[in-house]
Amino acid sequence: MQKHRQFKDWAVQRGVEIHDSIDSAKLPERGLGLTATQPISKDTLVLFVPEKAMFKLDLRLLKKYNLHKTSPQSQLAFSAMIKFSAGSSVFHLWRETLPKLCNFKQCMLLYWQCQHVSSLQPDPMDSSEWDEMTPPSVKATFKRQLADWEKDLAYVKPALSEAGFSEENFLYYWIVVDSRSFHWKPAKPARASGSMVLCPFIDYLNHGPTGTGCEVLQTPKGFEVVPDRDYAAGEELLITYGAHSYDKLLVHYGFVPTPGTPDKDDSISIDHLVIPALPEDIKQRLQDTGFLGGYVLAPAANEICFKTQVAIRAILLTCNEWEYFVTNGEDLGQDASADVTKFLEELFLQWKGEIELKLNTTKKRIPLLEEKQGVLLLLHNRWLQITQAMTSFITGGEDI
Ligand SMILES: C[S@@+](CC[C@H](N)C(=O)[O-])C[C@H]1O[C@@H](n2cnc3c(N)ncnc32)[C@H](O)[C@@H]1O
Question: Which residue intervals define the domain SET in the entry (predicted)?
């Protein structure tokens, strides 16, 4: 932990205020985090990161490389790559505390599936195998991330060779920014727009579901971290990165909470089951009324969303009954909820059977896949969460 002590001193010199009651620590299954070194009372200011200690994009540098119009994430990643990598960089102590590329290899789907990174080893697992092992809801989230990465890379490519960096170097900082940046809005001028920034020390904080972590407050001078409750010595302090589904945590942050612990932020997309079950005329009606797609199962509540209720009722009810439900959120005649549930149960049961076969195959395959084991285990755990959520829905929560 020597490098972390040095980094802490460096951060303090740059104006970061760290209360004696917290420190960084190595934690099982989650790299580093911040823990209480002694009891902490709710509302104690445990950490303050002033604006001057934040790492922001470097406009001069971006102009030099003609990158002032690329995405904010790309701009910050490029600036960090140049500034953190210089041999004599003032940021070298901070850089030393960041995960290594090999850590990202173990948990980031993007690392394995961005075929464009020319310096990467060819992936012996072909795309149909990845496709088979990735849950549809993860795929949808990943597709958006991949599209952003490809767009950013295409824009930055000429600058990379001009600056003497590889696509892999850029990918590393792109993931760093994706998984550990904050959004900062300066107090002045009044209409200043916000930007993505990296923040020393506060970036050690791991994620917990909404409402279960310390508050990160933006003040005119910087970010403050304030515990949401009393903490005992040894407890980890968490913040929430947002009300993210586990698919988003998997894709953008490289982890999924342990199976068996659904929280209310999670939702599972069931578009790939519901949409193909809709007759064409009903699909068109749902499209025209803004109800086509976006169907989810919420594992913590063991419920399907309103849009799914609407879509299945479009199959089961008359147009008049359906319109009444859409407008009023309740059925005109007899409550159709049980029929909706039954309709979905059949879809879920069929899919569950397919997933169980898949899980048996991947379980045998994972130990053979060496470097990719970490990512595949995450996908495996996500599949388990999906089957648990469906079982729970089918049995009304009695099996779980
Ligand atoms: C802002 S960093 C937090 C510090 C990080 N643990 C480290 O070692 O540098 C975000 C990363 O921490 C990890 N992480 C955050 N919350 C986690 C959690 N609840 N469980 C497991 N890993 C978590 C993920 O790898 C994520 O990409």
Answer: 14-242
Counting ligand 1 atoms within 8 A of each CB, the residue from 23, 253, 263, 378 with the most, and so the one to mutate, is 253
- In order of 13, 43, 149, 189, the CA distances from 256 in angstroms are 35, 29, 22, 39
**What atom of ligand 1 comes closest to residue 253's alpha carbon?**
27
Q: What is the ipTM of this complex?
A: 0.99
pLDDT of residue 161: 95
pLDDT tens track for 231-283: 999 999 999 999 999 999 999 999 998 867 788 999 999 999 999 999 999 99
Cα torsion through 169, 173, 176, 177, rounded to 10 = -160
- 96-117: buried (b, 16+ CB within 10 Å) or exposed (e) per residue? ebbbeeeebbbbbbbbbbbeeb
Q: Cα separation of 258 and 385, whole Å?
A: 9
- Best residue for ligand 1 mutational test, from 207, 210, 241 (most atoms within 8 Å of Cβ): 207
Model confidence band, residue 400 (pLDDT cutoffs 50, 70, 90)? very low
Share of the chain above pLDDT 90, in %: 76
Closest CA to 198 of 220, 225, 176: 176
What pLDDT does 290 receive? 97
State the distance from the centre of ligand 1 to the C-alpha of 31, rounded, in angstroms.
6
3-state secondary structure 303-361: EECHHHHHHHHHHHCCHHHHHHHHHHCCCCCCCCHHHHHHHHHHHHHHHHHHHHHHHHH
